[in-house]
Amino acid sequence: MTLRQRFLQGLEPAPPVLGLAVSGGGDSVALLALAVEAGLTCRAVTVDHGLRPEAAAEARDVAALCARLGVPHRTLRWSWDGRGNLPDAARRARRALIASWARDEGVGTVALGHTRDDVAETFLMRLARGAGLDGLAAMSARWDEGGLTWCRPLIGIGRQELRDALAERGLTWAEDPTNDDPAYDRARARAALAALPLGLTTERLADVAGHLAAARRALDAATATAARHHLQVDRGDVLIDPQGLEPELLRRLVLRGIAWIGGAGYPPRAAAVARALEALTVGRPASVQGCGMVAQNGRFRLYRDWSAVRGLRVPVGARWDRWRLTGPAQDGVTIAALGPEGLLCCPEWRAEGLPRRSLMASPAVWEGANLVAAPLAGRAEGWSAALDPPPGRISH
């Protein structure tokens, strides 16, 4: 099977218009070249993070190559605000910028240039951190996120093979100097791969990661089945019945609840989840990643922690945390958490059947410091609250 055929196989089904994330490195330039040779209708995008002086020139080189190949191209720029972890912030910003570009261009599928070497390097990096099954499993070849389909059609192809193909075609690419900088985890992983003993090749490690990905898919299916029988949503809270569940399935249901309630976009640390489950089994409350947890009537209740939303205030009509509120038109009101002060203004809250901790983090309508309405706490005043998105997604 030719390189082009393997690329197309990794892309199946081929979309009517394919978005290409092209940084200018060898992998993404190969992605561009193969897509053009395959006769696909493409759009290309480059994200300049402004972190290296060479990045702007590399983006211009990509634009020039795309012009030569007849592929529409756009460069997007991002500036770091200095907050948080830089690599993680850059990755998230890149994904968000590309997604916005794709929607503007009418692109439904975006291809990324990750290769088999990336799979092996990621495996080693996560192994060094003591990752479990989910961390060690190979990165997904295809997934849906943010209304788009993302794919990695080169994930089964080695980096050197792609560079050899580019050399044959007379195409050049940029080399990121951080790839050889031992200050970066990935650079150290590449060096470790080169020094592995006989038999532990990049291909072998990528295969192992693939086997673990298959095991993860099986566990995901078992978790979805368990969710239908052991998990339900109660007005924004998640209730989990732990009876008869294997510990790993229980842990995964809790992770699913945390992700749905907290919306962090990344899982909490395994140690934090283990401590929370230990606390719940002996009747103590716990909190992880903006989610509170309490054992109640034989079930675990997961709810939004008030401390995570106490400062969140939005205009009426805007999405507040996971909620949208509708009610009588009124000037000067905003949506914010009910909180302990608001709860004091809702004497009938117990009749609603939600615990105090949940209601404190529920949405309420305020006019300055005066509570106007609390739809979930027995003081609707013509207002209603609906989850956005609807809760059906959590059990699938």
TrEMBL record:
EC number: 6.3.4.19
GO biological process, one term: tRNA modification
GO molecular function, a single term: ATP binding
Top enzyme category: ligase
Tree of life domain: Bacteria
CC terms in the record's Gene Ontology section: cytoplasm
Name by which UniProt lists this protein: tRNA(Ile)-lysidine synthase
Organism of this sequence: Falsirhodobacter algicola
